[in-house]
Amino acid sequence: MQDFFLDCLAFGAKSSFVFILFSLLTFVCVYATVRALNLGSGRKDDSGALLENISVVNLSEEYRSAKKEVASKIFSGKEMENFRKSEKDREKKDKQKQEERKRLFVLSFDGDISATQADVLGREIDALLSIVEQQDEVMLRLNSPGGSVIGYGYAASQLMRLRSRGIRLTVCVDKVAASGGYMMACIANYIVAAPFAIVGSIGVVAEFPNFHRLMDKLNIDYEQETAGQYKRTLSVFGDNSSPEARKKFREDLERCHVLFKNHISKFRPQIKIDEVATGEFWHGTDAMMHHLVDEIGTSNEFITSKLDFADVYEFRVKKDKGIKHLVSKMSVLLKKATGQVL
Known about the structure:
alpha/beta
């Protein structure tokens, strides 16, 4: 009777494990299908180009409206009359100097582990490059702890398009621009960071669970055939005891780290790269001492400092909280377990 119960428990454990694996594979298939449907179902204009749910807001007008609203609540009598007069005089001067005023375009990037917003960033830059002039400036409000090498390399490439056209790019870091986030930030002509923002983490990591010993206990075989000596080195289900495979895996990580360091040195030659490329991070004020950033401040300060002599426009992307958002969040759990992460 005892053996019977042990056999039942073993069978139950094996069945549960197989069910989990099947569920993961099913999820991957469903996710791929949903992404394909989403990519093909975007609203199109007459030219057939995909239109993202992006709006362009006149931020200068928003600030002026907010200023008038606050004044109406606080000022009264003579104070309000003087305020209205000064506003009319300012607006008149602005109209007279309209052709001389520069433009500041504000973009935002909230990074996840896969840098999924890179495609949206690319479309925003497509639009900007069709109208931007040399005297204009682009500011990116960047918030990202880093993630996939491929994803953040692609996002950084989108920003390089602005630099290659000679458009001044400022990156503002209010909270965090670490690892892949800093890979993007360093492309800017100028980096502004809040005093306690996290910056740096110039390193590469790859981490994943290995179920090989558990599968051995459950008498589950994992078979994999490859062509090419290093087609697969370390894996989630395979036997990772080979010193040669582990050595090759580490060499790949080191090579990626070298590329990362060279990228930063190219855009910020003032950095002593060997001192900061240790995987450590710094808060804004300390990051400035290491030349990782150029100024201490916030994105709000930067924008308001431009309002008197520039028209400010912000690109805003509607957040998707539906099934697509849920699937994207769940996929992070899978992608974190595979591949190299900055």
